[in-house]
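User: I'm putting together a teaching handout on how multi-component assemblies are represented. Below are the sequence lines for each component of a complex, exactly as they appear in our records. Could you produce the 3D structure of the whole assembly as structure tokens, so the students can see both representations side by side? Please keep the chain order the same as the input.
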Amino acid sequence: MGIKLKALTRSPWVYHLSTGSCNNCDIEILDCLTPRYDLERFGIVLVGSPRHADALLVTGNMTAKNIPRVKKVYEQMPKPGVVIAVGTCALGHGVFNGSYVMPHTVDEILPVDIYIPGCPMKPEAFIAGVAKLLAVLRQKA
Amino acid sequence: MNAYLAYLVFPGFLFTAAAGMLASWIDRKLTARVQWRVGPPLLQPLYDFVKLLGKETIVPKGSSKITFLLAPVLGLVGVTFVSTMVWSAMLWPEGGFTGDLIVVLYFLMVPSLAVILGAFASKNRLASLGASREMKLMLADELPFLLAVLVVIIQSGGSLKLGQLMTYQQSYGMILGSVSGVLAVVVAVLTMQAKLTLVPFDIPEAETEIMGGVFVEYSGPPLAVFKLTRMMMLITMPAVLTLLFLGGVKFEGWHILWSLLKFFVLLLLITLIRNTSPRVRIDQAVRFFWGPVTVIGIVAVVLALLGF
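Assistant: Of course. Below is the structure of the complete assembly, with chains in the same order as your input.
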């Protein structure tokens, strides 16, 4: 397990999954790849297929319709992999709390490794969160 | 024993893999600097490769399993053969056999064929779409590339041996020095971009429309092998072009720097083209290669026959 996890912390490829977000978090995530923040320094790349992914980046409310699809995408991700929940909506339901179309939060469906709050989260917060996650993984390896 | 060593270690698999990873890093770093970013660390391609080796391999349901898993290996074998023959010809020009140029041209197609095989075997409609595009791209770029190679053969007096092509250029000046040679190099650089399936000809992968296209179902070690094949192609194509048009390499004194400069310029050209152009559609790509590029190629061949 050691070297696998260690290599994973050096090049986590991220698959971006929106489960019914308002798009604001998604824009902030793309912000992290711009010259100002440049996540490729850490080897983080956005990929188009869950098969290539090491990290599932979940944003949004997790509407009832999306639950089976989210499960499917998680199963399509080859293990070992991590799940990152981003934004207030993904952590709890934010202002949509109590809505009948959102019975579950993300961590009731998927094994979330790290929560990054904010509505939307700041790119700095995202980078700090991912750095902490990578440090924990490196210790585990 | 020596032949095995040549194919597996130097100048074959291990050497090309290391050089390819370095080339891939240069490509990514230059891209980052062009976009005013910092870019990945030096060992990033190695990290990516090791990480993918440690991941789970998922074989999609209903796919043809053996073809799906063997296709990456086929591509790797193809690029290893090309690299070994080209580097051997550059380092020991007396070796080789008559017609090894033709063998190299055939093996250059093998990585693309492997991608097509693997994509069709994966039973994914996006991958099939990507594979059909890759096939059209191959048909499109093969004709102008062969015309460009024909210029070299004509100029060096009908030689089909890689070593002889290089020794000819080292005694009579590189092919690039003539009018037909310049046209041939333009054609060859454009087709190289298509053979590497980099922007503007990354139509088979097209991340924003078909999600990585041909590689969409690949994960873990098979994907790692495909990525390694791509990295090795990134250094092997410049090697082929250096040998055919730029007079090959020479490892004595100042010639070492001059030889490295040839590779670096070709790599820089690839990266800059890839960073300054948008992706074209497949019909535009085929029209481009069979139209203007082929015409330039034919003009170059005619000029070469007339002795320019």
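A couple of points students might notice: Residues 2-140 of chain A form a domain with the Rossmann fold fold (CATH 3.40.50.12280). The interface with chain B takes residues 3-4, 7-8, 10-11, 35, 38, 40-41, 43, 47-49, 51-52, 54, 76, 78-80 of chain A (CB under 8 Å).
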